[in-house]
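Q: I'm building a small set of examples for a reading group on sequence design. Run inverse folding on the following structure and report the sequence directly after it, with nothing in between.
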């Protein structure tokens, strides 16, 4: 009898210990945003955090909101896209110093260098989430790099705001990926607008496309095809390249041999420069249209103004040369005062996504949770930044996580011996 009582006592103690351990694990999961999804239309397995006790939400303290980003800060494309992060950091420094931060807290941005490499991007995000305990990820740069991390962020219920890449997938299916919200025009939208423009301004011309063989390029092919009027223009050649390619000479030759008269280059700056300079050396002079990822003055460091002259691209923002515009003048002052480095059209993009971040955070000061900030983003309607062309606004909802859906064409010109981008024509909407 004594042995039986001891056995029951031992079992009771073990059961109590198991219950305590399970409860403790449950609290930890909730704090990290891994609760069972609520009845909000979110697919099973895609968690949404609920309101947490003060201090329990990662990345939020009484004095700070900690955000994280991955970007190429060094390497081949560090010089091209670092200005995005510089503009974002300078804007947060400005908000902290002159606006008292957000929700009474300082906004802290931690950026890890991924050198435009998907594996390094994954390492960077893991560190930011698991060691630095960021509240949200923002402004992750590069299609291939961000493709490596966005599932990880969505699986863990971590807001993934404003990727600096226009892959259509970021905002196309918010039911499956409720934590990712786009801001910059996506590649499908962009190329659809190019297709409309080509059929209107170059009817009868043969069209070719050189594209990066990933979501970037494939989205642009789909958009170009959707935008072209098939009764006016035909695509005569589609040439792909890998991001590890040394050069694209053979692809450019194939476009020329196919008789392309208008050529869309869905490429990042190094390959864009190769293509245009190579075509010039061949004596082939199509009307080049290059993706907006090239639409910064830095492009003229990759290819000369003479090579680039006449090339078309697109933008939605005011241009850095518009120094008389109050918003651009303020941006230049922020960059000067808060150590943002050399300003450009890409640093304007950095400040723009900083503004959207501050707007969302200000709408959720009484609910500083990860779910709260996503709900705040989805409440933004017809948001007009002073840095964006009048008439181009941002509207989000639970069913729409796509960013700007209109663009205006810009053309490369030479002024005073320097290459510049200048707008021409009217704003072209994605949807008629």
């Amino acid at each position: 009898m004594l042995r039986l009582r001891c056995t029951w006592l031992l079992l009771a103690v073990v059961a109590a210990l198991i219950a305590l351990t399970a409860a403790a694990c449950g609290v930890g999961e909730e704090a990290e945003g891994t609760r069972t999804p609520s009845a909000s239309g979110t697919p099973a397995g895609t968690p949404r955090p609920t309101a947490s006790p003060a201090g329990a939400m990662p990345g939020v303290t009484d004095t700070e909101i900690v955000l994280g980003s991955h970007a190429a800060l060094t390497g081949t494309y560090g010089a091209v896209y670092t200005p995005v992060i510089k503009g974002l950091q300078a804007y947060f420094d400005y908000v902290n110093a002159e606006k008292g931060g957000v929700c009474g807290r300082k906004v802290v941005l931690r950026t890890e260098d991924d050198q435009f490499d998907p594996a390094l991007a994954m390492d960077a995000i893991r560190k930011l989430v698991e060691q630095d305990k960021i509240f949200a990820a923002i402004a992750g740069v590069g299609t291939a790099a961000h493709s490596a991390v966005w599932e990880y962020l969505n699986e863990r219920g971590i807001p993934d705001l404003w990727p600096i890449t226009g892959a259509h997938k970021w905002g196309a299916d918010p039911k499956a990926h409720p934590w990712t919200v786009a801001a910059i025009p996506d590649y499908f939208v962009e190329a659809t607008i190019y297709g409309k423009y080509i059929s209107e301004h170059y009817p009868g011309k043969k069209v070719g496309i050189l594209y990066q063989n990933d979501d970037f390029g494939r989205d642009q092919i789909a958009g170009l095809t959707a935008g072209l009027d098939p009764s006016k223009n035909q695509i005569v050649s589609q040439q792909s390249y890998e991001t590890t390619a040394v050069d694209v000479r053979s692809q450019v030759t194939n476009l020329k041999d196919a008789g392309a008269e208008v050529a869309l280059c869905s490429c990042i700056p190094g390959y864009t420069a190769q293509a245009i300079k190579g075509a010039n050396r061949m004596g082939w002079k199509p009307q080049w249209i290059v993706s907006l990822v090239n639409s910064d003055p830095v492009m003229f460091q990759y290819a000369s103004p003479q090579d680039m002259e006449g090339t078309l691209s697109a933008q939605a923002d005011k241009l850095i040369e518009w120094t008389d515009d109050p918003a651009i003048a303020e941006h230049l002052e922020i960059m000067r005062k808060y150590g943002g480095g050399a300003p450009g059209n890409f640093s304007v993009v950095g400040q723009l996504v900083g503004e959207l971040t501050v707007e969302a955070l200000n709408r959720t000061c009484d609910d500083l949770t990860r779910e709260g900030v996503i709900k705040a983003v989805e409440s933004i309607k017809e948001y007009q930044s002073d840095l964006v062309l009048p008439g181009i606004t941002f509207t989000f909802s639970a069913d729409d996580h796509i960013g700007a859906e209109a663009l205006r064409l810009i053309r490369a010109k030479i002024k005073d011996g320097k290459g510049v981008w200048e707008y021409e024509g009217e704003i072209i909407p994605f949807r008629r």
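Residues 184 and 403 are 6 Å apart (CA to CA).
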